[in-house]
């Protein structure tokens, strides 16, 4: 019997949300009921989810959840380029917003599981507006709660996270540090995946994520270039490129500007050998792997036999930092078979690792 699943996600910012949705939509053991978006512009995130599901051939609905944290004074987490993943021909498959459509799924299906791979605002809102969900949900899998850390999915809405931890929901926590130990080669996802429309779209999101984070890592390179004397005519010809880099560094607003920065930097480093020592710094700073934290959640849900679990008490202090104690009612994953996880990830994406 297939597992009825709802995924609460801030899809579009980091590519691992899209990978998790893709894997869930295609797994024969999962009946993906809905993708429930949260955190920021839910119209854009819903559009991205809808586009991906359509390309996957999935009939799962798209639900617009909570855009803003419950914690006062906090802002949603976005990079700003998410809207560039949509196109004018994108047809939205919205099936509603708020709690009502989630309640309907819970009322009409037994054994529903939620995978929460985003800040937990949606989950806290569900508890507040439909407390009966604590009895109706079979289990909630959460990616987050990195020990001793103000981790993304907890730290971007600590109030919501505390309400979830304090509830009677049956929780399985996939902690962030567990998911740090194996990352995917970015080139495998961008260049090695089969050229299906869905995987090409995920590759586009991976490319955008990689550009954004690489340029953040390289933002100080234009300052280093400024310190190099312009001694030759050829070196002087590089000055407009350096000026363009300085102008764009840290000020990019969309994927086009990210691409332009990357193009200018590559042109400078490949066309001017005198900057070779800077090229070495760039190569060291460039990010070559992609974290796939959210895909771990789908793996742990489907393959408990390849995980090691304990029961613990998970709490957040006043600063949003996670603490974990022995014993308690929270199922906590402390180990897994990384070889099996890689097989699951690559076979699910249709990639043959070299």
Named at the architecture level, the CATH assignment of the largest domain is Alpha-Beta Complex
Estimate the strand proportion.
15-25%
**Could you report the average pLDDT, rounded to the nearest whole number?**
89
Principal-axis shape equals globular
State the end-to-end distance. 35 Å
How are the strands of the largest sheet arranged? 4-3-2-1-5-6-7-12-10-11
Characterize the biggest β-sheet.
10 strands, mixed
Return residue spans where pLDDT drops below 50 for at least 5 consecutive residues. Answer: none
Query: Can you identify the CATH class of the largest domain?
Result: Alpha Beta
The H-level CATH homologous superfamily of the largest domain, spelled out, is Ribonucleoside hydrolase-like
Task: List the helices and strands in order.
Answer: EHEHEEHEHHEHHEHEHHHHHHHEHEEEH
* Rg of Cα set: 22 Å
Task: Count up the helices.
Answer: 17
How many independent structural domains? 2
Describe this structure in words.
With 354 residues, the chain is of the alpha/beta class. The protein folds into two domains: 3-183 and 291-349, Alpha-Beta Complex (Inosine-uridine Nucleoside N-ribohydrolase, Chain A); 186-289, no CATH class. The chain is built from 17 helices and twelve strands. It has helices spanning 15-26, 42-56, 100-108, 121-129, 133-136, 152-155, 158-165, 176-179, 186-192, 197-217, 221-226, 233-237, 239-248, 255-271, 276-285, 293-302, 338-349, and strands at 3-9, 30-37, 61-64, 94-97, 113-117, 139-143, 171-174, 184-185, 289-290, 307-316, 322-326, 330-336. The strands form two sheets. It has a ten-stranded mixed β-sheet, with helices on both faces. It has a two-stranded antiparallel sheet with strand order 8-9. The longest helix is centred in the middle third of the chain and has 21 residues, at 197-217. It is globular and about 70 Å long. The two termini are 35 Å apart. The model has no long low-confidence stretch (mean pLDDT 89).
